[in-house]
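Researcher: Here's a chain I'd like modeled. Treat it as a single chain, no partners, no ligands.
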Amino acid sequence: MKRTALIVLALLIAGGVVAALVWRFARPPKPSDELALYGNVDLRQVELAFNNNERVAAVLVQEGDRVRAGQPLARLDESRLAPQVAQIDAQRAAQAAVVDRLHNGSRPEEVAQGKANVDAAVADAHNARVQLDRLRSLAATSGGRAVSQQDLDNAKAALDTAEARLDVNRRSLDLLVAGPRKEDIAQAEAQLRANEAQLAFLRQQLADATLIAPLDAVVRSRLLEPGDMASPQKSVFTLAIVDPKWVRTYVSEPDLGKVHPGMPAFVTADSFPDRRFTGWVGFVSSVAEFTPKPVQTEELRTKLVYEVRVFVKDPSDDLRLGMPATAHLALNAPAPTTTTAPTTTPMAASEKGATP
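Model: Modeled as a single isolated chain. Structure tokens:
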């Protein structure tokens, strides 16, 4: 009897344990208020090169230096460019003087000189006509014996020459009064614009001899040294844009509806176990892709996931490119009213980085 009671008690205890286990594992799990996504720190990079083909004269920064937008980073040899700029500037100044002279027209002194030339020509023509008339009168009164025909012909030629000179001087005076032709002014102005355009081009080349940082960044690589030959195809520096940074992660399709651009998040890294980096969801891909091989096991590689970028604030620049990190998304936070994420630096066409 006692043995039977023990067996029954053991069966009851075993049944209770089984029921408790079934109740525990069969019930739906309590929904979590946080979604953890695993990925790596990513950032954008810029390859900087000179626009000119010239020898490098100076390199002003080292790897690891923080640079500001507008800061000079390197310089080219300007010994050939500076004289070219001076030459074209002198040609532009000379052509500008020509244009001003044409616009101003004839000086009063030139007009007065033209009038004086006309008066002198009138006097010469009058004197030649008087001489011819006197010779003709003598020839008529003497029956042609006092004056030879040669003298008459010479006097007539002198009168014709004087009258022609008078006509030339009068036309010259008219040109002085009328001023330059519109076509001449237009031609001179066109030549001046050509000189100015060439001067602007050379000045830009001279300005391009100094390589300027386009934005705030950190020098990641220094690729040329003084004495090297620079060209637009050779990068001088690789700059890492440390703001913004993001963690490139992937979310599975069942969790995709929980993630929205703009939702708050924080990022942790194994190198900083006691720190939380404030962040937000800045991008959720609309295209599915297979799980990247470098970050997942073979079992998960065939699953479709969506890329998520969690932007992070890192003013002290502690997070490094490629560092493993975990993004924690607060699912109980209110959903954003719009899909606009907090302001981040837009990606320029010239920026180099990991392929989205």
